[in-house]
Amino acid sequence: MSDTPTRTVRTRFAPSPTGYLHIGGVRTALFSWLQARRHGGEFVLRIEDTDRARSTEEAIQVILDGMEWLGLRADEGPLYQTDRFDRYNEIAAQLLASGHAYHCYCTKEELDEMRAAQMARGEKPRYDGRCRDRKEPKPGVPPVLRFRNPDQGQVVVDDKVRGRVVFDNKELDDLVLLRSDGVPTYNYSVVVDDMDMGITHVVRGDDHLNNTPRQINVYHALGAEPPVFAHVPMILGPDGAKLSKRHGAVSVLQYRQEGYLPEALLNYLVRLGWSHGDQEIFSVDEMIELFDIGDVNKSASSFNPEKLLWLNQHYIKEAPPARLAAELQWQLERLGVECSRGPALEAVAEAFRERAKTMHEMAQAAIFFYQDFETYHEKAARQHLGAAAAEPLKQLMAGLEALEDWQAGPIHDIVQGVAEGLGLKMGKVAQPLRVAVSGGPVSPPIDVTVALLGKDKTLARLRHAVVVAASAGDCP
RNA sequence: GCUCCGUUCGUCUAGUGGUUAGGACGCUGGCCUCUCACGCCGGUAACAGGGGUUCGAAUCCCCUACGGAGCGCCA
Fold this sequence. Notes:
Blueprint lengths: L9 E4 L9 H16 L3 E6 L9 H14 L5 E5 L4 H13 L3 E4 L3 H13 L23 E4 L6 E6 L3 E6 L7 E3 L7 H11 L4 E5 L6 H10 L6 E5 L2 E2 L16 H5 L4 H9 L13 H7 L10 E2 L2 H14 L2 H14 L10 H8 L6 H12 L7 H7 L5 H12 L6 H15 L3 H13 L7 H8 L1 H16 L6
Parallel strand pairs: 1-2, 2-3, 9-10, 11-12
Antiparallel strand pairs: 4-5, 5-8, 6-7
Helix pairs in contact: 1-9, 5-6, 8-10, 11-12, 11-13, 14-17, 15-16, 15-19, 16-17, 16-18, 17-18, 17-19
The structure holds one RNA strand.
């Protein structure tokens, strides 16, 4: 169903840089971005930095870099609320003049006292409007500006995901618009901004659902039409508890460091609270084609790291080799591995693509192609580089030394030939070779591994392994 | 405490009055195999509870329980 075909859809993502952008914020951004893309609209990025005390430059950078990494490009922005104080003041003056707002001189102590008393009486703590009709300023006290909320009637939020939610105005109190230092509060600046920026669909976390009726009242006081709201459910940790540092509440950029592909993260996130039949895999284009904010679930969902891993592996298997090569290089460099000399990264990535869940994992498994190892994997050496391996290794060395056409096919023939000649199973020859060249018991197919490693390194490592095996003595 | 929201396998979900309640991750049995994986075949497991409405409820209504959010000069 289309919403308002006459109005161009404009959505926004409005994070506050008081903490790092994490998985939950990213999904909200994704839904918002998709909603705009889906309807051929525009997406705005706005930084809500009015809490100057807790906002950090670093957190802003994470937002910008994170959005960039994920490909969630904004058509407008980043816009900063701190650039718009004049506008907030302008609107505030209007509200004051029209009687929709008033100065309040209550001190923090006074308000605390009032709330404590209300709580004690079992009431909902709320501002009682005691300054509503105050005519005289209180000397020496810088006032806040409060909104005069209607005290009769109801506010209906026709939420795209929650459905129709009704609030009684008498449950709402007079919210602060401007703090005593003149800085706007969230519930006020968000309305002015969304109105000024022509936002048609507000997609945000459902922790804002309770704020929505107040904001709608402010829109009405301003004579503006409120946007369509869509409150998406929260993301919980794997244990069903609130998302914490333990799981997903880390900077989204950490997922890049850990070797996740952005398409995997996006695919994982879009399926949290949204689905299209039984489909699990969605390219970004498919998401844009199929997504609708109205199809989002109402209930919170838990973050499942295993499924993210599975998707990441899927995308690693699917990604173009050049992409993987670039990521692999980035990861190897982060591990301090010099990879300009050695097998082509693309070829290595192809060899590993079906056996790595993350690019970080792939990089670690591929180190032996670019660096000599100091020691063998202990258990592997014990099992595969014993006395019994000496002869197969010698023969392999001889065979490979004579090989001109250094490719997987011919290499495979030599390994197989040695096994057959000695009446051994492939495993008895391939495993010693594997440990000899890679240092451990696991690698891509042995012929591919040897081909990639190159003749010189292979022979050098074999030479060493033969010595180790021969000197293993008669211990079985 | 008050207001608002939510509740299908362990997890993500399909389902909109009639299904053996489907898929996916995970776990697990098997096949493949030079290791690890990939892949393929199979298994495991759910409608929070109680009342209605109805010939018939996962689906509609009410209550209860449990969980969450908000109630700031935070966003």
